[in-house]
Design brief:
Elements lengths: L2 H8 L42 E7 L1 H12 L4 E4 L20 H17 L7 E6 L14 E2 L12 H6 L4 E6 L8 H12 L3 E6 L7 E2 L13 H5 L13 E2 L7
Parallel strand pairs: 1-3, 1-5, 2-3, 5-6
Antiparallel strand pairs: 4-8, 6-7
Helix pairs in contact: 2-3
């Protein structure tokens, strides 16, 4: 199965939410080999199926994919939104700020799980994010592959479109006891909240039920130049998405 066919498995033609799936990582699948990621039973999530609810999984990359595949068995359509490239091949991590190889490995394994799920074209969505996308570390040194990234409202369907498809609720799944979404994701979820989508929050490590979520207003919310300002400090890739080598200073 080549990269295009794999992308079709995750974002089949005719499926309602396929237009939001990001092809960036799939385009790099030719560089992926077996990274030795152990495969056991897919993790479970205390989240019963609900045809009127969208899910946003904001977890460390491979965990997000695994839980997305688990939710597919319950009738949710996992939608990968990973918008970064892995960087050049090489030692573990390839010199990249974020090691995306395990994410790619699990996307590849979707070819086994997703056909078995036999999802309908209008199955409710589960949007997959990597919570490490803006991980804070010392500024990447020259020569490192800086593949940090962020999400913007245009990466998601609007509240109006969700409601037109019968989605009235959304649950954010994250970890670490955080009571609010990451700032970039807050720009998305607050728009949903204002558009009448009921929001809740579930900590993956909690055995409890999702709790009501009221998203706090992030800085520059709905500002005209928000997307341009928010992208400052991130490196765009010429092939799409984010990821580029931090240039070395000239020696002149």
């Amino acid at each position: 199965m080549d990269a295009f066919e794999l992308f079709e498995v995750w974002a089949p033609r005719g499926a309602v939410w396929s237009r939001w799936a990001k092809p960036v990582l799939f385009a790099e699948m030719g560089t992926v080999t077996d990274f030795g990621v152990e495969e056991g039973p897919l993790p479970a999530l205390n989240l019963p199926a609900d045809p009127g609810r969208a899910v946003v999984l904001d977890l460390p990359g491979a965990d997000s994919v695994q839980l997305g595949l688990s939710l597919a068995r319950d009738g949710c359509r996992p939608v990968p939104l990973f918008n970064s490239t892995p960087g050049p091949a090489g030692p573990p991590g390839g010199g990249a700020v974020i090691d995306l190889r395990p994410v790619m490995e699990w996307l590849m394994r979707g070819q086994r799980y997703l056909p078995q799920a036999a999802l309908a074209d209008d199955s409710p969505p589960a949007f997959l994010l990597d919570s490490r996308r803006q991980q804070v570390e010392p500024r990447p040194a020259p020569g490192r592959f800086d593949n940090r990234w962020l999400v913007i409202p245009q990466d998601f369907p609007s509240a109006g479109l969700l409601k037109s498809r019968g989605i009235e609720r959304a649950v954010l799944v994250q970890e670490g006891g955080r009571a609010q979404p990451s700032e970039d994701l807050a720009h998305v979820l607050l728009r949903w909240q204002e558009g009448g989508i009921g929001l809740s929050l579930l900590d993956r490590q909690s055995a409890g039920e999702p709790q009501a979520l009221q998203v706090e207003r992030p800085s520059r919310f709905k500002a005209l130049w928000y997307c341009a300002l928010a992208s400052i400090g991130f490196r765009r890739n010429s092939a799409g998405g984010f990821g580029a080598v931090v240039p070395r200073p000239s020696s002149g």
